């Protein structure tokens, strides 16, 4: 199988919405953004591998970062393959098996791209290590909750806000007339959009996280561990998420090439749809699961192509 098609197949397996965004991107940035996503997704699979002890996962994340920066770790690929055998998701299994190819593609990028990608991934790895260190031993009998708003805000920046910054830096350099505003305001709006997308996941996944003994909504803003109370008291976080997505809307309004507007507009529209459902949902509905169906994803993509995601 062609290597590019193989990696595209893995992308399709491990991502719903990002794969659709990737397909409409111009060639000048598609491969780099796809590679960055797969490397981040691979490290996420390592961080979430409950079959491995927390200390081992933290060590593997450090070794991944060091290897990407040029370090030689001949045992790393074998250790990832050992972890791969214990994963249930076929897409994640294929992803861990592709580590050597992904690292090779990363090392083949021009120096500027490698530097920017490593800076982004370094933040993601740090956020994932914090996640494992905080929640690695959590379960129903030993629940763990973040302490403060600062911790949650920092987490959203580390694992998602930095992606918006990287996306902006890459597109500014590689796509002519990418935006009509200054670079730094665009980086800030891109960071806010990433934070909003991550906060959507945290709000939507609250019931499952509680079942696993972890809670990202901080103790500082919560009076109880009980799900219904937490959900009622999460209104400020839903409002904050709306604010982040509004900043994402400002980002979208400044983007000019239609392919980039479509690629940014699809996850933004999906997030807004999800948040609208979360804002009106009772706890019992959230427990059943809030998810935008694939048919709605296709409809959003079609509408975006028709109207160019004009804000």
Structural description of this entry:
The chain is mostly helical. Strands 1-2 form a two-stranded parallel ribbon. The longest helix has 26 residues. The model has no long low-confidence stretch (mean pLDDT 91).
Beta-strand portion reads under 5%
Distance between the termini: 41 Å
The run of helices and strands is HHHHHHHHEHHHEHHHHH
Q: How many beta strands in the DSSP annotation?
A: 2
The helix/strand class is mainly alpha
Query: If you compute it from the alpha carbons, what radius of gyration comes out, rounded to the nearest whole angstrom?
Result: 19 Å
Provide mean pLDDT, rounded: 91
The number of helical segments is: 16
Largest sheet: 2 strands, parallel
Molecular shape: globular
For the biggest β-sheet, the strand order reads 1-2
Uncertain parts: none
In which range does the helix fraction lie? Answer: over 70%
Give short descriptive properties of this protein.
mainly alpha, single chain, 74% helix, two-stranded parallel ribbon, 311 residues, 16 helices
Task: Describe what is shown at a glance.
By secondary structure, the chain is an all-alpha fold.
SSE layout and pairing:
Elements: H1 3-14, H2 17-24, H3 27-47, H4 54-68, H5 76-84, H6 90-97, H7 99-107, H8 111-135, E1 144-145, H9 149-174, H10 183-204, H11 206-211, E2 214-215, H12 227-233, H13 235-254, H14 258-280, H15 283-288, H16 294-307
Parallel strand pairs: 1-2
Helix pairs in contact: 1-3, 1-6, 2-14, 3-7, 3-8, 4-8, 5-6, 8-9, 9-10, 10-13, 10-14, 13-14, 14-16
